[in-house]
Amino acid sequence: MFDRFVDEYNTDRPHEALQQQTPQSVYSASERTYPRRLPPIEYPEEFQVRKVRHAGEIRFAGKLVFVGLTLYHEPVGLVQIDDDLWRMYFAMVPLGLLDAYKGQLHPIARRRKTGTKVRRAAPPAPPANLEKVSPISPV
Hints:
- The chain is mostly beta strands.
- It contains 2 helices and 7 strands; from the N terminus they run ααβββββββ.
- The strands form 2 sheets. It has a 5-stranded antiparallel β-sheet, with no helix packed on it. Strands 2-3 form a two-stranded antiparallel ribbon.
- Strand 6 and strand 7 form a beta hairpin.
- Residues 129-135 have low confidence and may be disordered.
């Protein structure tokens, strides 16, 4: 059923955004080639490299530090910027600042173009009638 819809959508139905042409009539395959496997991520010599474990953690300075489940089995690089402060990267994308003493990863505050820090919004206040709200709503 869905395959019929996809076929009709791409080959039979004209689309307003395509000046009433079908997607199949305007599609052309990309000439860009992609490798079968991406090359391994490499970090500069001054970085310490840790592989993210199945629970999204790395072990650093004797502590387990949660990085994120998305990076499972990927290497992250750490470069020391102060006594117990390390900047963490994934493929040269900064992930945050690692406080090695506390074993906590903190996001890097983004700056506006003017150079002022972006204020983080406070979490929304819970509803005033929280005790009256049922966790499961009837349908």
